[in-house]
Amino acid sequence: MTPGDTDALFPGPMSGLSTTDPELVDYFGHFAFDEVLRSGELDPHTRLIVQLSALIGSGSLREFRVLLGGALTSGVTPVQVKEIVYQSVAYVGMGRAIDFVHATNDVLNDRGIDLPLPGQSTTTPQTRAEKGLAVQKQIVGADAVDAMYANAPADEQHIQELLSANCFGDHYTRTGLDLQTRELVTLAVLIGLGGCDPQVKGHVVANLNVGHDRALLLTVITQLLPFVGYPRTLNALRALDDVAPSDRTS
To answer: Do 92 and 128 reside in the same domain of the chain?
Structure first.
């Protein structure tokens, strides 16, 4: 991506800073929109989806709004953006996610997009637990899920049930994003959130379970680096290396 392309995709990505902080704008722009983009192969659509997800995780509302405008311009659909935000609720909580819901609504309203968007739910209150457990086992692995239930103390069983019905039943069963993309969204949110290394590792496994490979996950982590920083990136790399070590002979 050339500097001109960057300006078209992200008009004023660091508004005002080009005057007050020209050196920062210069070297960050080269790093994020040139150097990092040359590492691995990730289509722009997926790159923008995972970067938006990581910005929600890190609570970076202002940069999220800027990137959201570029994402919509480049072909990420309003439904896909809403699904990214909705899915983040299960991982960052509504306390953090609510600001991103409102920011997304503001950007969509500014573009003349009528809200609410078409519903994407495929479950009912009666089916969400069963369907959630099924997709949880598909993603996490049946043996792993059964072990989570078996190992949870009696007074914590309700948390496992809520995880199946809410996190998976209310979110992963929705249309708008396919299952493979949802797992990338979750991984990116967790990396951006920080402080949840076991969950990052678990969702590296889950991404492998839904068909992604080490090369793709390494590229995703690399594309998040400019927005989440080195510590969270290095922690994500440790999780990736633990689960899917590099073939050092290649």
So the answer is: no
Phi-psi region of 211 (alpha: psi -120 to 50; beta: other; left: phi over 0): left
Show the domain range for 144: 122-173
Record the pTM: 0.94
Question: Does residue 11 lie within any of the structural domains?
Answer: no
The whole-number average pLDDT for the span 199-227 is: 97
CA nearest 123: which of 195, 63, 171?
Answer: 171
Tally the C-alpha atoms within 13 A of residue 168's C-alpha that lie toward its C-beta: 22
Taking CA atoms, 62 is separated from 73, 134, 173, 187, 205, in Å, by: 17, 37, 30, 21, 31
Of residues 37, 50, 13, the one with CA closest to residue 180: 50
> 119 and 212 in contact (C-beta within 8 Å)?
no
